[in-house]
């Protein structure tokens, strides 16, 4: 048996299987088996291609496998290595050191393998046994979790569903509801106070008979947490004060958004759910294109070399071949999504339906990247990527001006084609500019405007926050008696990045 294990370099393909399985185990309940299979097949294919390239150079399977193994191991565990060095040896945790050192060591190792006359069979056997043991341990832990009853979430809003019942309203008119979320759109008051910017969107909205909640605030300053609270009409259990959030916290929020209370309640009231957002809703997947890999597998892929380089220094590669084309395609994806969703929102009201509809649209604007200037001119990729890192306020304000023009188009289209529709126009949080302040209140001051066809806004109040937005709206539209919660905001920081993209 041992001789067989020394004969074949199984460890090279056990490595990606272990990496994917271990990541799945650590994020159990967030990634589907289908998504896991796609990721595993992708990594196995990449490993096989690299092994073939190495074989063409060495003409020896054991040497080719070792070279490919070193490269793939560094790729998979780069994040773990860099996090360790950042904590204990920050002086050598920079990309210039890590990438240069690996490149030099790889050349030295390649020369050694090329000149060596060793068979490397004992090392092959050891690595095979090592990864088989790792896989057996993780398989046992996975089976244990599979047969365990239920998955405990760090964040939840279960008390809402437990303590509240939905009261059917047979006499309610049940108008169509358009919920248009503008990511990172600050309130007019914040724009004037902090950036000396006069926002002319208010005059348009008032002309269209909207009620503007000028002192509205979000409950959280990161998108997934804010949307989880808005759509569940509740604060998130597990977050009490300022918290350094992790990738698992983000994943928890996506679970809460997918199964949120608003769509459950509206579904029970007979509404069709139309999802034009960046999130999956239960039974209504997102139309947004993210990447060639399943969205939730980023819980695993975020640790890799590619993910770290893309996040931290990828913008620097925007003008380099062969990175230029890929980066250009990648950085422009959110703009393509925005343009598609805007057209869907503008044309949707003309579609006739026998049932009322709840349309949730989530546009990644005026949040960075700042694709357009104030005149609607698309910027070049180099400028977009540079501004995405430096976050100039002037670019944010110009992109906000462009966003205003698209808001006018959407609102006008909805009101002309579906005059009885309710429109909720919100920012998920304020402008999250770079700061060292302990509690930057402007990060929470968000756009909030509501249109009711009957212009009866007495239930709305000026300082409403996200957790109460749909409580107030549904109390009016469906004659519910949901209590209004105390409005407050909780400042979050990202564990790895003080200025995350969400």
From TrEMBL:
Protein's name in the database: Sulfatase N-terminal domain-containing protein
Keyword Transmembrane helix in annotation: yes
One Pfam family of this chain: Sulfatase
Source organism, top-level taxon: Bacteria
Record field: transmembrane: 7-25, 37-58, 65-81, 93-113, 125-143
Native source species: Niastella populi
Keywords carried by this UniProt record: Membrane, Transmembrane, Transmembrane helix
InterPro entries: Alkaline_phosphatase_core_sf, Sulfatase_N
Boundaries of every Sulfatase N-terminal domain copy: 329-431
